[in-house]
Amino acid sequence: MKKLWMFITIVLLLAGCGDGHEDAAEKGTETKGESGRTLTIAIGTDIVSFDIHNHNNTSTEAVHDNMFNYLFKRDENNVIQPELVETFDIIDDRTVEMTLKEGVTFHNGDPLTSEDVKFTLERVAADDTLQEYPNYKQIKEVEVIDDRTFRVITHEAEPSLFHRLSRLGSGILPKTYIEEEGWDNFLANPVGTGPYQFKEWVRDSKIVLTPYENYFEGVVEEWDEVVFRVIPENSTRVAELLTGGVDIAVNLPPADWERVAENEGTSVKTETSNRTIMLILRATEGYPTADLRVRQALDLAIDNKAITENVLRGGGIPTKTRVAPGNFGAEESLYNTYDYDVEKAKQLLKEAGYPDGFEMTLHSPHGRYLQDAEVAELIAGMLQAVNVDVRLELMEWSNFVEMRQAGENKDAYLIGLGNSMFDGAYSVDWYRSDRFVGETDYKNEEIDTLLEASAVNLDVDERAKQIQEIQRIAAKEVPHIMLHQETINYGVSDRIEFVPSMDEMIYAPAISRK
Amino acid sequence: MASYIFKRLGEMIPVLLIISFIVFALVFVAGNPVALMLPEDASQEDIDQLTASLGLDQPFLVQYGKYLFHLVQGEFGESFRYNTSALPLVLERLPATLELAVAALVLAVTMAIPLGIWSATKQNSPVDLLAAGGSVIGKAMPNFWLGIMLILIFSVMLGWFPVSGRGTLGHLVLPALTLATGLAAEITRLLRSSMIEILNQDYIRTARSKGMREGMVVYKHAFRNSLIPLVTVVALQTSTVVGGTLITETVFSWPGLGQLLIQAVHTRDMAIVQACVFVIAVLVIFMNLVADVLYRLLDPRIKYE
Fold it and tell me: How many helices (H) and strands (E) would you count in chain B?
């Protein structure tokens, strides 16, 4: 008996010990601190890695954005501006010469040189095991002219080069540091040129950054420490915000908007994301949706506004294009608008030979996008009004991806598509006839011709017109039924000034105390 | 006893091999992780290229053979998600999960023992009925709901404990309580029935007839004899507690194995899933062994063959 109690006592003591070193930063209320100069952001998933070329994750990039710089960066109006580059010159269709800004250093003190740029871009352009490889394989080589001048040479004429160099995966890495200390050391102690430097990463718990004193644009003095806390559960993130444990909580679920807005000291901030929710229709011969009139009828039967106002509680903007304003080549006349006419839809179905409607299958992921299952259910209900019976298949994301890969999708599936390039060309490429053979089988020769021409067109205005024309054709042909552009929603403490951005980055230097 | 322990440890090897095969097969059947690594608009060519680069296009047996070859050398392979060795990642999380699981077990036993004894000695009294009702509710409440309710009451409304994270003793209270509630309910019921049975034994009547104080009868004779089933159920519940950490750790952002495993399953991160299950299996088998050894300490009549 005594032994048992001894065992229990030992276990109790062990349980009480914990890791004392973690307590100060972990404790939520500490974020208010003595000076309140710690910015705490609750993110839903942990970062994947500090290998900027081997992830495809927005929340990871939101952390990296504070530590690394791109050669170019989009400003608050989504216009691409030089960031690490001072000047650039387009030499020919495949070559751009750039000169780096003077005085840029990495967090370990090494100066930024053309060799670092060559090392970074050639790595991601050559290593096909990296997740960002598909977005940079267009780069053939980087030719170093001198310490600050280099040339980026592409395989073909590359109109999207500046879009590529201003996004996820294009932060510049320290060549000497990585070569001398090794990758493993870099991944454990990452070094960039950004305004904040790495302090600590406790996996699935927190990432801590501190200001870099020699930042080339001047040290950021607003925050002594920026802490990204990993809180996967929505309700826990909200509770942390309400109790002052965090300053920003990402991905606020609609059910909590009112609670956060009404709570003293917190508010809800929203911004349009660059993700559009749509139904991809199957144009394969034999499916009712192969008929243009059926596709148009389904589009007309869906009340986009009812979805955004009721299911999303205002968290979406109806659209007829997935190239939203802020992206290159956006056709703005198709944005913030929709067509809804049940009688016309019935008439079109009658003309197409379906006076009594038909049965169709709609696949939808469950839990991937804002209220996705509820949106799909509402659409099924709306289509019932034109006598189209929808068999709704709600699927776990990984099963959904496999279904698509295997070409087992039926009449329609719901998906949300983003565009990290902010280049409309990448959105409209989904209409290319040889891209989804066996999956959607949509073919339009006029679109194919325009896509081919825009892919190598370096005339900015002409290329924008080509992309806009494709959107206008697609709006009439309805290979995809556009539903809405999603919003991103944050719960924000009233003690800070934070303006969300469309690319979902959380850039600490742009956040201030009130 | 040493030879018995060595024999039991030896038996772990085939069990762990079988577990590794089952988990490998299940994750393999679940599909290609590359589809989840690339964005929605990745082309089939990009998916095929990365699949081949990671060796995931090879037949099942080839992949399993390679995995086994590395496994016997103590390597679980690289995590697709984190691009680093899986085992150190898992071992890094183990202390957090152990801390939570041990705290929950201790809390559950601490709550259950007085309640179970009280219920047994005061059968059908209001206390007994209350404990019985409480046990049913405690067992029926799902962890995720209970966790969220505890956060709402004790963190948001009362502000007594931190909402989430790990660090101080205060951070441990709510997740441990969440995990302990169901277990305490089960132990209370078991201890009650076991005690009632023992309190009706002849030797208890003899003890009472000798004029022994009721407290001594209950604690020295009845409770001590109830310890064997108690230890059994606590040891067997280890797997339930570790299983419960999956949800509890997610709700409370507790950076342990559970949270890691959930993420790995979502992203089909084969190496992490394998390493997590392997470590949990070792833990559960080890706890069963501890229980067997404890039997001997509690009842010297039990012999090991």
Answer: 13, 0
